Amino acid sequence: MIAEKVLIIAEAGVNHNGKIDVAKKLIDAAAEAGVDYVKFQTFNSKKLVSRSAQKADYQKENTNDPVESQLKMLQKLELSKENHLVLIEYCKEKNIGFLSTAFDLDSIDFLNELNIDLWKVPSGEITNLPYLRKLGSFEKPVIISTGMAEMQEIEDAIKVVVSAGTKRNKITVLHCNTEYPTPIGDVNLRAMNTINSVFKVPVGYSDHTLGIEIPIAAVALGAKVIEKHFTLDKTMEGPDHKASLEPNELKAMVTAIRNIEKAMGNGIKAPSQSEAKNKPIARKSIVANRDIFKGEVFDENNLTIKRPGTGISPMKWDEVIGSKATRDYKSDDLI
């Protein structure tokens, strides 16, 4: 599913605040940053949460109404079906992939009608068997986020998706921590490689930390997919803005990731094309330490080691010591 190039998903999520013009500006920013996909969220609030569901602590802190229910908050953040169509067309204009995460079964059906490229399972749905089974039945690539999950829950989710029809090689699992923002000490990036080792699937990282260094480090550790929230302005009202990147930060993250993936190379230790020219300059050769006459025996007094490295390698020192000069040498001549 995933090529050598790291797949970068810019998570717009609900940072459009329910406004189509803001959503378009988010697409502009994602396209300018050079990401592969911009991702939104598709849901029917009444089918997602009950009336009694309360907001998470971070949602209470980042919205102006701490006693507001989660349902009331989400109703203001829904994108209509018509808006989805507008945003898909706008993404085509901007030459960027459109994605959205479904949060209920009806939303899955709707997105399937839109023929999206791949499915993204959010962390909260990793234990939702009917949800996973429906996604798996489409036999398209599936990316699974694992915030709050234990290894057994990840295994169970993969089994459901595979048993529903999706081939295992189309599944990518993202390590994730579902706290906004995630404390650095809770990131546990090594868990990403544990997931890869145990389940033998491509892995990636969905990041909720502040800043860009952690997703960059994830790429260096082998992440094939990076997902990161972004916003137009962190000071905007809404549940996810404060834990998101602003456009200039998103662009810096993409640039760094592309540099890191280039720097990873092929793993073969050999002189690179760029450094080859410096080899004779930086390395050394066996040279005459003083004038040496033909027939004289080479020893540790009349020989030394100096740059350039265009003569006999110092690794042959023991072979040269004790042999005889076949001609005269001036001091500093290469032997």
Automatic annotation (TrEMBL):
Domain of life, source organism: Bacteria
Organism listed in the record: Maribacter cobaltidurans
Record-level GO BP terms: carbohydrate biosynthetic process
Originating gene: neuB
InterPro entries, sorted: AFP_Neu5c_C_sf (IPR036732), Aldolase_TIM (IPR013785), NeuB/NeuA (IPR020007), PseI-like (IPR051690), PseI/NeuA/B-like_N (IPR013132), SAF (IPR013974), SAF_AFP_Neu5Ac (IPR006190), SAF_PseI/NeuA/NeuB (IPR057736)
Pfam families listed in its UniProt record: NeuB, SAF
PROSITE patterns, alphabetized: AFP_LIKE (PS50844)
Entry's Gene Ontology molecular function annotations: N-acylneuraminate-9-phosphate synthase activity
Protein name as catalogued: N-acetylneuraminate synthase
